[in-house]
Write a structure and sequence with these properties.
Layout: H1 3-42, E1 46-52, E2 54-76, E3 82-87, E4 94-95, E5 100-104, H2 107-140, H3 148-180, E6 183-185, E7 190-192, E8 202-203, E9 212-227, H4 231-240, E10 246-250, E11 257-271, E12 276-283, E13 295-312, E14 317-319, E15 322-328, E16 334-338, E17 340-344, E18 349-354, E19 361-365, E20 376-379, H5 390-398, H6 401-412
Domain Multidrug resistance protein MdtA-like alpha-helical hairpin: 113-182
GO molecular function, one term: efflux transmembrane transporter activity
Subcellular location: Cell inner membrane
């Protein structure tokens, strides 16, 4: 091997050794510093928000999805056929019971009534003549000028003509009723929908489509279902409530209450396919806030728990063994305590049946960084942790963070 090749190999080995030494020392120093820094940070308390459990009267609710249903819905049909002459309502208008809605050409029915009246007059004239003849026969029978058979025949004639008069009265009443059907009035108070037929069309009696649909919305019903396991509780609470259980209808986001009413009917059977039972509630709906066909969230108030123990809903966590909370201890650490919940206590609180006592402080924010025995910095709701002091910053520097930066610069050089 030539001398210059040997020199080249020695130079390469020296360079490789130098590079390896630099890499080893530049990586080892930050790793040690990182461990020292991590140990220092691990001892720092975890900032969390805590709230004390309190006693208060808690209403117990059941919730469901409900459908608004008109108290009454009527399809207004013509009861006689003929040409539609006029409509006396506007689409969407609120009408009262008895208001005139439409008119059908009455001429044919007026003529039928006039004919029935004339027929009665004709029969009445014949009855009058027969009654006069009967009166004469009754005088003549005393003098034996007529036979008893003739007298009896005349009496039968009068009875037949009296029956004809009664039939004429019925025919007149029927014709007058048919004539009255040409004026179509509202059978209920409600809101008129979209008209189904226009003026000038020939309408038929009791046609399927009708003329207009009226829906009664004052008051109005909300239909909803509950699981069958709630049946006994609802029935017991309904029996104890003199005016019916309080029911609230909320918007689809549960943001606010649209209207309040009362439970009216619990259905008499359970749906075997779904395991639920139907309920009907009634709302005054004076401001028409509820509308037929609308979907609402329903909240039924079953009872009120006096002095129930309440914590924020965010404090209750779900684990493999059930619900639990992190409770603040006297030494500034937290302990995991299993709890039993007894339902919602409003939109953002939970009723606790057992596991903690009134006054116990539970963590409501920051649980993801905790484990049993973790040291915490307890903060009130909305309070932010204080910035680190100069002494704490000095401890962080002594923990090795500056060495990390210097090591980085050496490595970069």
């Amino acid at each position: 091997m030539s001398r210059w090749k040997l020199a080249l190999i020695v130079v390469v080995l020296l360079v490789a050794g130098l590079v390896g030494w630099r890499i080893f020392h530049s990586g080892a120093a930050p790793a040690g510093a990182g461990r020292r820094g991590a140990g220092a940070n691990a001892d720092a308390p975890v900032p969390v928000t805590v709230v004390a459990a309190v006693n208060r009267d808690v209403p117990v609710y059941l919730t469901a999805l409900g459908t608004v249903q008109a108290l009454n819905t009527v399809t207004v049909n013509a009861q006689v056929g003929g040409q539609l002459m006029a409509l006396h309502f506007a689409e969407g208008q609120e009408v009262k019971q008895g208001d005139l809605l439409a008119e059908i050409d009455p001429r044919t029915y007026q003529a039928a009534l006039d004919q029935a009246v004339a027929k009665k007059k004709q029969d009445a004239a014949q009855l009058s003549a027969s009654q006069s003849t009967l009166a004469r026969y009754e005088e003549l029978i005393k003098k034996n000028f007529v036979s008893a058979q003739d007298l009896e025949n005349q009496r039968q004639t009068v009875r037949q003509q009296q029956a004809l008069i009664a039939a004429d009265d019925a025919a007149i009443a029927s014709a007058r009723t048919q004539l009255g059907y040409t004026r179509i009035t509202a059978p209920i108070s409600g809101i008129a929908g979209i008209r189904q037929v226009d003026v000038g069309n020939i309408v038929q009696a009791n046609a399927g489509s009708g003329i207009v649909v009226l829906t009664q919305v004052h008051p109005i019903n909300v239909m909803f279902t509950l699981p069958e396991q709630n049946l006994e509780g609802v029935r017991s609470a309904q029996a104890a409530a003199a005016a019916g259980l309080e029911v609230a209808a909320l918007d689809r986001t549960d943001a606010h209450v649209i209207a309040t009413g009362a439970l009216k009917v619990i259905d008499n059977q359970i749906d075997t396919t779904t395991g639920t039972f139907k309920l009907k509630s009634e709302f005054a709906n004076a401001d028409a806030a509820l509308w037929p066909g609308q979907f609402v969230n329903v909240r039924v108030k079953l009872r009120t728990v006096a002095g129930g123990l309440v914590v924020p809903a965010t404090a209750v966590q779900r684990g493999p063994e059930g619900n639990y909370v992190y409770a603040l201890q006297a030494d500034g650490t937290v302990a995991m305590k299993p709890v039993t919940t007894a339902g919602d206590a409003g939109d953002d609180a939970v009723l606790v049946a057992s596991g903690i006592a009134a006054g116990d402080k539970v963590v409501t924010e920051g649980q993801f960084r905790l484990k049993p025995g973790s040291k915490v910095q307890a903060l009130a709701p909305g309070e932010a942790p204080a910035p680190p002091s100069a002494q704490e910053l000095s401890k962080l520097k002594d923990s090795g963070a500056p060495q990390q930066r210097r090591g980085g610069r050496r490595g970069g050089g």
